[in-house]
Amino acid sequence: MKKRASISALFVDIGGVLLTNGWDHHARRRATKYFKLDWVEMEERHGLNFETHEGDKITFNEYLDRVVFYEKRPFTRAEFRSFMFAQSKPYAEMIALVCDLKAKYGLKIIVVSNESRELNAYRIRQFKLDGFVDAFISSCFVHLRKPDADIFKLALDIAQTPTRQIVYIENTPLFVQIAEGMGIRSILHTDYKSTCAKLASFGY
Questions:
Q1: Which of 34, 57, 126, 201 reaches 20 to 30 Å from 105, CA-CA?
Q2: 109 strand-pairing partners
Q3: Angle in degrees, CA 15, 77, 117, rounded to 5
Q4: Angle between helix 173-181 and 149-159 (nearest 10)
């Protein structure tokens, strides 16, 4: 049996790992169909604003002003907001896995995520992520976004855990590469089964 490598902390993304992506192109495509919006125009406006929004430099309402409500609409902000938030669904097996690892090995759980403030707050509250996550290094809180390596440096400072004792679960290959380049063992998450297999190879 392979000797278990010492792990003290688990870094984990939210969108694509613990939950579905909050407001990705699939969700935006559904929104344009549901609300009968122009996909190309909305996507162009989103592309110009989403980094600023996820960095918490514009509010949720300012984002909606720029991307959707720059002209009169036959629906309300509340209706659009409800639709946006309803796109978030839990990956129950992954949440259970992280909770089990925390309980069994006493791991610190640190989220490293690009999310806008209002959506992030909703997802934390709705899916009770604060019940098992010790710190949220969310772009909207720290004004840094992946792939900026500084967001990982900040997570390391807050975790106060040597890189060799951390495993990072992330579904974006580039972000995995950056973390690995900093000495953080990382798992490119594609599904529950393969992530469990990779953790098992680490002895967990």
A1: 126
A2: 10
A3: 35
A4: 60
Q: Determine the Cα–Cα distance for residues 45 and 50; give it in Å rounded to an integer.
A: 9
CB count in 10 Å sphere of residue 57: 12
* End-to-end Cα separation, the chain, in angstroms: 12
Q: Are 30 and 180 contacting, i.e. CB atoms less than 8 angstroms apart? A: no
d(C-alpha 1, C-alpha 112), whole Å:
32
State how beta strands 108-113 and 135-138 pair: parallel
Phi, psi angles (nearest 5°) of residue 39 = -60, -50
Q: How far apart are CA 110 and CA 168, in angstroms?
A: 9
pTM greater than 0.85 (yes/no): yes
Backbone angles phi, psi at 71, to 5 degrees: -145, 165
pLDDT, block means (10 residues), the chain with 204 residues? 72 98 96 98 97 96 98 97 97 98 96 97 98 98 97 98 96 98 97 96 89
Query: How far apart, in Å, are the Cα atoms of 15 and each of 94, 116, 169, 176, 196?
Result: 12, 12, 11, 14, 18
Q: For residue 3, give Cα distances in angstroms to 10, 133, 167, 200, 202.
A: 19, 27, 16, 11, 8
pLDDT at residue number 203: 86
List of residues 6+ apart from 181 with CB closer than 8 A: 149
